[in-house]
Amino acid sequence: MNRNIFKVQTLLPFLLAGSILLLVVWYATNLYTIFSHDFVPWTGDEVSYVMEGKSFKENGTLHGVMLLKEKVAVLGSFGTHGFMYALTDGAILSFFHSEKSIIAFHFFLLAASVGFLFFLPVSWMHRLIAVLWVLLFYYPAYYTFTFMQESLNMFFAVLAGVNLFILYRGNKKFRIHFLVL
Fold first, then answer.
1. For residue 24, what pLDDT is reported?
2. What one-character DSSP code corresponds to residue 71?
3. Rounded alpha-carbon distances, angstroms, from residue 167 to 42, 92, 161, 171, 181
4. What is the pLDDT of residues 49-97, one digit of tens each?
């Protein structure tokens, strides 16, 4: 019986690494497909985000583009989602000039989220398990390849989780002070 447990413990890191490699290939294939073909927003929110980002890039304004009952916010004349999405997407579009760069930014956030997991003061096996959990969660699998902003939420959630874990463990050597809760 002990030999079987030893075999599982020996194979588990390879199984985890292989699973992560397959997921990375899947993500990269999706990213390649998006950049090699036409890709357009398909939900109303995505259209709104891209239009507000383009408006910020071209006009320098955060004024709402798609409005509810033709009304904007009293303070700032923002659209129904506020100003942050327009500012984020507009800044990306100002630098890269393509709507697909927004998706590349979301992919970068996913890679950064996974990268932060390597700051966890745990064994490599536990780090691989944490990476697998993040990659298998439906947020990155779905939202990384859209114009939705949930990738930002996931990035800050992973960053906060890593910080809270490090603070809980009391390991001052690895503290990340850049996050303000």
1. 81
2. B
3. 41, 33, 10, 7, 13
4. 888 888 888 887 777 776 667 777 667 777 777 778 888 888 888 888 7
Tell me, letter by letter, the H, E, C secondary structure of 38-60.
CCCCCCHHHHHHHHHHHHHHHHC
CA atoms within 13 A on the CB side of 135: 24
> 88, 122, 126, 111: which is closest to 158 by C-alpha?
111
Task: Give pTM, 2 decimals.
Answer: 0.72
Q: How confident is the model at residue 181 (pLDDT cuts 50, 70, 90)?
A: very low
Mapped onto helix, strand or coil, the DSSP state of residue 73 is coil
Q: Give the span between the Cα atoms of 65 and 77, in whole angstroms.
A: 10
End-to-end CA distance of the chain: 48
Q: Alpha-carbon distance 175 to 181, whole Å?
A: 14
What does the pLDDT average to over 21-26? 82
Give the max Cα distance, the chain.
70
> For 9-13, 116-120, 123-127, 175-179, which range has the lowest pLDDT when averaged over its residues?
175-179
